Write the structure tokens for this entry.
Amino acid sequence: MKKLIDIPRRRHWGTPQRFRLEFFNENSFNRLWSFKFSRLQVIVWSAVTFAAFVALIWAVVRFTPVGDILPGETEAEMRRQIVELGIRADSLQNRLRMLDSYSSNLISAISGRPTDSYVSTVISEGDTLIEASEAEREFIKEYDPSGRFNLSVLTPIAAEGMAFYSPLAECRMGSEPDSRVATLWVAEAAPVMAVYQGTVISVGRDPQGYVLTLQHGNNFISQYSGLENVYVKKDARVEAGEAIGSVVPEQALLFEIWHDCVAVAPDRLISF
């Protein structure tokens, strides 16, 4: 009896496993497409297909209106935009209210009426073409020295930490103490300096000379009237003590300070 000898088969450790994907016509059994690929190719193409699918979804959500109907981050972004628009609308409303009050007080000052916000409102009620009677003028004189302090009671608090400079290095005051408009005279031509850092909001001219207005922090506004020359332009940023214009001896400098649209006596904040 012959002894059978088993011959071990050769193992192909280095041969990779390959796969084939074929498409046949069911009626004619003809081969339509045939694809050969290895296991590594399957993994790579699966990863590429998944990454492309994720990128496509991100692009659709990011660059099309589809993202607006999805919950989550869209709602937070919308709330942020609504809050930001509300803050801007409130700031614009306050700015318009301040400009309206400032314009009313400026018109009252030019026309010779009291510049106090409350007094101007009282006088302007009814028919503005009717001149104030003597009794009304007496009432205003009695009210003005006592009532105006109440309107500007927050001014010293707002001015804390703000060091105001004098607009002129050497000058002589021609107005009464506690006057809403400081009339300053100089012996010779001198530069006019910004009393505090701020932004130029207007530069104009009247029969007496140039008129310049600065916006400072804490809702303070300073105005310089009767300038011979102006050295800055609108929207320019100036520092405290910086020369913004000049004045001559023949023309007085009319200096005003406003806080929250109410005129404040300059000598309360500045030592001339």
Q: What stands out?
A: Residues 100 and 142 are 27 Å apart (CA to CA). The chain has three domains: 19-63, 91-151, 164-268.
